[in-house]
From TrEMBL:
<feature type="domain" description="Solute-binding protein family 5">
    <location>
        <begin position="102"/>
        <end position="484"/>
    </location>
</feature>
<feature type="signal peptide">
    <location>
        <begin position="1"/>
        <end position="23"/>
    </location>
</feature>
<protein>
    <submittedName>
        <fullName>ABC transporter substrate-binding protein</fullName>
    </submittedName>
</protein>
<keyword id="KW-0732">Signal</keyword>
<dbReference type="Pfam" id="PF00496">
    <property type="entry name" value="SBP_bac_5"/>
</dbReference>
<dbReference type="InterPro" id="IPR000914">
    <property type="entry name" value="SBP_5_dom"/>
</dbReference>
<dbReference type="InterPro" id="IPR030678">
    <property type="entry name" value="Peptide/Ni-bd"/>
</dbReference>
<dbReference type="InterPro" id="IPR039424">
    <property type="entry name" value="SBP_5"/>
</dbReference>
Amino acid sequence: MNRRTHAALAAAIAAALTLGLGACTSTGGDQGGDQAGVTTEGNGIIGGTPVKGGTLTILSNQDFDQLDPARNWTMPVMDVGVRMLYRTLTTFKAAPGAEGLKIEPDLATDLGTPSDGAKTWTFHLKDGLKYEDGTPITADDIKYNVERSFSPELPGGPDYAVRYLNAPDGYQGPLKGERLGKEAIEVPDAKTIVFHLKRPVAEFGYTVTLPTFAPVPKAKETGANYSNHPVSSGPYKIETYDRGKRMVLVRNTYWDPKSDPVRKAYPDRIVVDQTQKGTGIAERLIADQGDDKNAISYVDLVPSKISEVLTNPDVKKRLISENAGCTTKLDMNTTKAPFDNAKVRLAMQYAVDKEAFAATTGGPAFNDIATTYLPPVLTQGNPIDHFMIKPAGDPDKAKQLLTEAGFPNGFSTELVTSTGGKAQAEAIQAALKRVGVDVTITTVDPTAVNSIIGDKDKQPGLANLGWCPDYPSAATFLPMIFDGRLIKDKGNQGDITRFNDPETIAELDRIAGMSDLQEANKAWVALDAKIMDKSPAVPLTWQKKPLLVGSNIAGAYAHPVWAGQIDYAVIGLKSAN
């Protein structure tokens, strides 16, 4: 595939998501009011352009699950990693809306050169790139981290390299000394890396925005402990990190802003306080006193504080709430009875009260009812209602299906969720109770959810998670959550439902091989409908991301790629005093 064709496809990917953003930023009902306008100041940027200096505080109620770039696959944490701590071959522009969907060279000199029909991709590194200790960044360091993503000792990260690279079957990563050969990745010199893929991937220039394609120096490898102090190639380095309590970032003096067109690194220091409660974060930012004027929220505004924010103009103008492009789901463990029965799963589509669930996360001001797996940002901006079920559900139809499935009296099951997700779990519990399904809720620390749900022996019948596209393509959505070939007994990350359907897998492969992106988009939508009929999960809401910032914050906006999270590449203060 020639360069011009690749560029056209990349533009089409961005255009598809741009259409979706236009449709999804609108809000329904009086609750939202003119909320779409809360981020319009300064062309979608709250506070204008920041000054250099000062200390930015990020208030959170949770630790980062993984800062290791080979394992970082949670959208808010990816934002922290790739915008502050490490750089990737390419990255997304620092801008709100459609402009933020465009990619730029990051460590690489360009967006990559495809050859062999887009099965081979070559990247060249910029001059003078260094880590936080002053040692040079080499192409082999990027290869090494890509290899790490194959390691069973480092589970849970993006698996695009595993999916795409022409690597030998059974490759287990580099921790025991085995490196990938030239058939998968070539490093002809310190500044050149060549990827050989199993099949054409026209959008591979987008793929290498992921943290898998950040450098890791082999000499600093610490295995599972690398998350405690990833070696910085970005504008900030970790000064201290007390897990679950506090992380302090300071400037990486070897980061060269001339080589980095995206990250501005305005604050001198960034303090992440992970000891707060959601309500306390909201109360502090609403009050906006003292150092809290220099603070932003890492986590969503708690629903109990929504009306207090929306009815106070001075606070409301400090609220960011853009569509995250994500789908929240009720995931059913299809390997565990009775969810191994497709008719039982279909009954759940009718049993759930999505309206009640949405109310627990703020209602129409902060989410829309989801009616398919693919969010509107990946269906040309047009939401698709597959089953045409009322938002409150249809208990009678659900009971009928359960009777047909052999469960006229319902059944009992367990749902695991984070401590912060209890209200959402209770809404699901109440809705299923209407059709005779008794749900026991187990709440755990947010950092433990994935390890439980990803373990075949520990995973219960139900879980309430979601999925966001890693970059603007449906190829980063349906294959990630419904390709049964990549299910793991432990560390299972994408296909949480453990849905392993040969017909679906065959169609995933067929669409993946299509060179016409527009035809592929139509095929993804059709496949979405087929999977809905088999119902491994119930789509619940298409989320928005409500985040408050202090009055001295500047450069704050929701980035369209990182699930509506504030873009940490350009955040800072109005005044550093």
